[in-house]
Prior knowledge:
Helix content: under 10%
Shape: globular
Amino acid sequence: MKRIISAFLTTVLAASALAAFEWGGLADNTTSYANNSALTQQNAVYLWGSIPLSEDGTSYIKAEGMYRFSYNSKAGAVTNLIDLDLLKYANSIKMGNNTLNISAGRFQVSDLSGAIFAQTSDGAYVNYVTPSYNLSAYAGFTGLLNSNAVTMIGDSGVDPEKVYSLADKYIPVSAAVSLPSLFLNQTLSLQAYGIFDCENSEKTNRMYATAALTGPLAAKVFYNALSTFGTNFDDFMNYTNISVSVFTGPAYITAGCEFASENYIGFTAHPACSTAMGDIETTGIIVPSISSNIAIKNDMMLAATMKGIFSSKSTESTKGLQAEVNYIYNILSDVQISAGIKGFKSFDVSDLDKVTATLKLALSF
């Protein structure tokens, strides 16, 4: 009798979960052409699914997988990529005026600066939110990721012969505290990040510490200031980013400046000039910038960015201007087209000059 009841309950729970199952997808086509005669073609399909585990939706399981075809005419390279970039269990638990958020599985992780560890990773994240402070911690493992879909220091990189190749084994861990409305609605955040090599290669071990201060300066004017200090246990490094944003009706404008010390290397992300121009150094530079996003209509947006790039190294001459303009148009609720152009003009080395035009079409279903 117990077995019959157990089987019945299992069937009911499975049926209710399937009834609440939600899914969707996205197909996109991206074509880029650079003035160095390189044509890049990408076609991708993304599928996602979600199963709520509670009536209010605060507990759920969500997954996303993708396939991407890429072709580069200059290199003559064709790559096929299959990846499971999301498989997450999440739960949000109310505890009086406080909330405990838990996530486990594979999901996107980013540090405070976005210049240390910013990519998909397998692991667990805990966040405890109160009216006066927030505490969070993360621990992960990279050895089961697809190395063709992520970028890490010392990683073996893309293997065009394989659609899924295991990445190198690292353990990222972090702990953070945030004090919202510490004074005059200003928020102070502190974070420590450690990345350790499971292959016992001490040269890739890293430790970082970040402090960030954000808040309003006036009505519709906000600032963000952060600085990261790191060490590979041989040298010290620094990355600093300061910006001010102004919201004016349908547009907002951001002006800022980034600095990356000569030996600064984020573990998964380059700081400052990290766009797809490819041949520009991303360490030992000072990068002032200004950008703007303008909502032309409810279904149209224009975004523009201008960066100046100046070397902080006495022996280097990496100097230039980088500009990018993108236009996005939502033709229908599930069809979007975008066009963009970006370029770099070197003050010293004309071979570094580059212009790339991109056209993208995306269809959601």
